[in-house]
Specification:
The protein is α/β, with parallel strands linked by helices. The strands form 2 sheets. A 9-stranded mixed sheet has the order 2-1-3-4-11-10-9-6-7, sandwiched between helices. A two-stranded antiparallel ribbon has the order 5-8.
Length: 228
Amino acid sequence: MKVGILQAGHAPAEMIAETGNYAQMFARFLSGRDYSFAAYSVVDMEFPKSPQSADCWLITGSRHGVYDNLPFIEPLKALVREIYHLNIPLVGVCFGHQIIAQALGGQVEKYSGGWSVGATEYDFEGQTVTLNAWHQDQIVKLPPEAQVLGSSPFCKYAFLGYGESVFTVQAHPEFKSDFIRGLIDKRGRGVVPDDLLDQASSKLELPNSNSALADRIHSVLDLAQVTA
């Protein structure tokens, strides 16, 4: 099964040699299944020929906002709507979570409450999960067909579903603690308040629920085999 990864941003350049870019990180995160991966750097205007170019899709995180006036934003929103209306499985993470909501009638803003960074607890489908967060923007208005699957006191719409075939999450289940450490050092200082970065640094050794979220994402992507 072919998973199309729509890469909406780039990892810090000085970290890519060690961690890979976001598409490579997701390929590792979703390894262990009979998947092949095709990466499209949509942030650089590299788009697939059609929504049927892959069996299912995943949109990565980005340092950009879905409201930014950048060339790739509107074409990506149009592609999201095509994928959605064709009922092709789709997963969105962080920026991907936000742009799917925006494309389908929701609204995203820079959150007045500030940043969420590092290990964060969420109530997800009746269980407590811990995932690494790195965001200031949030969904503030739901699309009409979105169902809230999980939240935290800081992030009301942290997990969304749209029927069976679309699942999105605000946090980063693909981020391990060493990547958060790199973001703190390479992108955090001078942007994110120091006290939040210090708190995130103090939680780097906490266990996370990445594997549970990988299973949840697999369950959505694997719908492509059922409907093929």
